[in-house]
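Data deposition worksheet. Section B asks for the primary sequence of the deposited chain exactly as it was used as input, without tags or linkers unless they were present during the calculation. Section C holds the resulting structure in token form. Section D is free text for depositor observations; keep each observation to a single sentence. Incomplete worksheets are returned to the depositor.
Section A, Depositor: J.P.
Section B:
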Amino acid sequence: MVDNLKSTEKTHYICQTYVEKTAGNGLQVDKQLQYSSQVQAQDRAEREFQREACIGADAYMVTEDTGSGEVSAPTFLVRLGTVPDLEGI
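Section C:
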């Protein structure tokens, strides 16, 4: 019997930035960018956080089971500035 089970996991590295909502109360996602490595996502978050309008930035990774479409909870690589509480994610 041949084992046809192959790894169906894919890791996604994300940089997500935040701006203040127009009404001035709370955060709003500004950009969400995907990268092929953890270093690229983290570097971009650090650069984006330097922009004047950016009040916060996250770099994180998630693992997707491509067979089922399920995605893991995020593992944060860096969190800068004003970002959502972990309970709200």
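Section D:
The chain has a mean pLDDT of 90.
Residues 9-82 form one domain.
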